[in-house]
Specification:
Distance between the termini: 49 Å
Number of helices: 5
Strand order of the largest sheet: 1-2
Helix content: 40-55%
Largest sheet: 2 strands, antiparallel
Length: 184
């Protein structure tokens, strides 16, 4: 209003005049209340769905599929995830793993070409050891483990080490401060 713009609604004919200000404020407050109430109901529905052990939506981790609202192992793509974890745990760098998978004709979960980011998030996803989290809370028995915890923990240590010193694998000489001093 302060810029000279009027809102005209086909559903609510507010009209003009002093009483229109009151009616418009009432309609706006009613719409805001409806929106906040709907948000609460949706969140309650999601909590109940998760409490029943049913999948509540979102992106499905590579190597899984949804069957009857449950996250189950997809036997077509799960071997790829196992291969990625095993190779990474053995010290193979992600680029080499991706290149090998591309040679084998492996595609991303949506059919796209594999990239570095395809599996980097997967390496830290606890769903692969059966620990599915929803909004920060662990949901028991929601997903079957694809890999064992020992491999997962080994990969976590490597991911952490490589994230702090990403070029350490390229160095031909071992330096005393390697992995300890960082560029500001």
């Amino acid at each position: 209003k302060q810029y000279g713009i009027r809102v005209i609604s086909a559903m609510e004919n507010v009209g003009e005049g002093d009483e229109a200000v009151l009616l418009e404020a009432l309609l706006e407050a009613s719409a805001e209340y409806f929106s906040l109430d709907l948000k609460k109901k949706i969140e309650r529905g999601q909590r109940e769905t998760i409490a029943k052990g049913r999948y509540c939506g979102g992106s499905i981790p590579y190597g899984y599929k949804i069957v009857d609202a449950k996250i189950v192992i997809d036997e077509k793509t799960a071997p790829v995830i196992r291969y990625v974890f095993e190779q990474y745990a053995a010290g193979v760098h992600m680029k080499e793993i991706i290149d090998e998978l591309k040679k084998r004709g492996v595609r991303g979960s949506k059919g796209g070409e594999l990239s570095y980011n395809t599996f980097t998030r997967a390496l830290t996803n606890p769903t692969y050891i059966g620990q599915y989290t929803y909004k920060g809370q662990l949901v028991p028995d929601m997903a079957e483990p694809v890999i064992d915890e020992e491999t997962f923990e080994k990969v976590q240590m490597l991911v952490k080490a490589r994230s702090r010193a990403p070029a350490a694998g390229k160095a031909t000489v071992e330096y005393m401060l390697q992995g300890k001093a960082y560029c500001g």
